[in-house]
Amino acid sequence: MNQNSEAVEKSKESKKINGKSRIFTREFWEVDLLIYPKILFFVLLVAVNTCYTFRTRFFRDVFGIPAQQYGIIAAVLSFVAFASAPLWTYIADRFRCPKTTLLITTLCQGAAFFLFKCIARATEETLPQTIAAVIAVGSVINCFNGAVYPLMDRIIVAMLNSSKCEGNAKELYGRQRLWGTLGNTVIVQFMGYLIDKYSYDSIFPAVGISFTLFTVIGFFLIPSDRPKNGVSIYSIGEKKDPEIAKSAKLEKKNEKRPSNFESIGKLLSNPKFGFFLLIVLFNGVSRAIGSHFMANYIEDDLDGLSGDKTFVSLASNCGQAIELIFFFVSRYLVARFGVFKLMVAAQVSMIIRMGIHVALPVGTGIQTYVYIACLAEAFKGISFGCMTASGVMVAVKEAPIELQATAQGLFSGIYVGLAPSLAGLLGFWLLKTDVPLLPGETKDDLSFKTRRAKELASITGFFNRHQGLFKISWILAMIAFILLIFKSQYIDKKAKAKALQKIELEEIKKTDENLESSVEATADSQSAITADISEKSQ
């Protein structure tokens, strides 16, 4: 009876605090809903993706750069993001300033986008100079962009660990990240509408407003790097994670911080983490091939499916809808299946996605194939959701607390930096070759299409343009799957056996030390007895 009455009282307390409904309290929004991480993810992804989905057409329509040249541009820009990510995360780790670093780099990224206003549209004579100028401006933007995702993940994980909400960061992360996907979905639809109605010039005010909005919101919602009570973003959450508490003690001792290369070397020397990054690379290249060239593939009449921008948005939305669902239930998926099975699902879904695109006939103009391609992009949502959730958790698990931002930087740099760079190079290699029109020919002539197909097949063979890219992507996804199984069956088991052996050796050492101390104590006792007898006999 007493237990029932206590339950009723707790229920009343949960609904009302000081006579007010709980929904009007700060605790409801910060603890029950975890509203701050959700807002941060939503606004950040809105800002970053104001132009991302339409980037291929942006370069073509605004600067006159052919779609065939986009591969090399994407390769350079993605490599810049990859190279800069460890630098920014090292700065954040070294000086204990993740919030400051994130806000400055995000604001600079938005400001740098306006440098595109200084570039004139290309002509036949000025095309190389225009491409070089676009790459230069894009490199500045992506240099700052390299800091965004790893630092945001690092901050969100710290905020979740420090919250009073039940569950750890592994369980809570997915439901926060889904708001980023929701923000991406909203901005893609909105920007598609603005571009169709007002042209690509509408991107510039959207970029300025969204990046400024995130900077202001982040300033107020992200925990301070060095608050007055002496607890930094790296030491919050000590109650939930003893490793963080241990790191906080080390921080107070002002121990010497390793250099950037030492930090990366320490992480890569961990076989489990190093092999994980290799899997991320193969999966990331496979994913990025679709991300870079999917819009062009859907809209191309000769090498694609003859769709339009509506289908480009539909394909994007199919993937993002699945991402939303996945991130919403990720807490239960991680608890039920674990990180390894999520990674298996990531590779298998990527294999299915690219297998469907390889099987679809191109150049037919049949709309049914476009719908099938859009549905295939749903598997992208599964793969991306699984890799993002598992990648963040592996970085948290395998890296020491003082190097977690660096670990996030390596994961993010490879997944959204190096992998897209390699994918861009592959696209440039396969898409740069084309067949010129003969006098009096048009692209719609059957004679041109037949001649073009034969000549391209003789040049590129099995790996023919968009279909060739998807074949390579499918092969890479298969390699990632095989590497994952090898890691699970050999690398992880070997590391586990080594760890158990180390524990056994430490236990044996302790036992030996206890025996030695026991023998010494016995010897001392016997010596004392002998001395006592000797004294009495005298």
UniProtKB/TrEMBL annotation:
Q: Which residues lie in coiled coils?
A: none
An annotated GO cellular component: membrane
Q: Where are the transmembrane segments?
A: 35-55, 67-88, 100-119, 131-152, 203-222, 273-290, 310-330, 342-363, 369-396, 408-431, 468-486
Q: Where in the cell is it found?
A: Membrane
Identify its membrane topology class.
Answer: Multi-pass membrane protein
Would you identify the family this protein belongs to, as annotated? Belongs to the major facilitator superfamily. MFSD6 family.
> Can you say what this protein is called?
MFS general substrate transporter
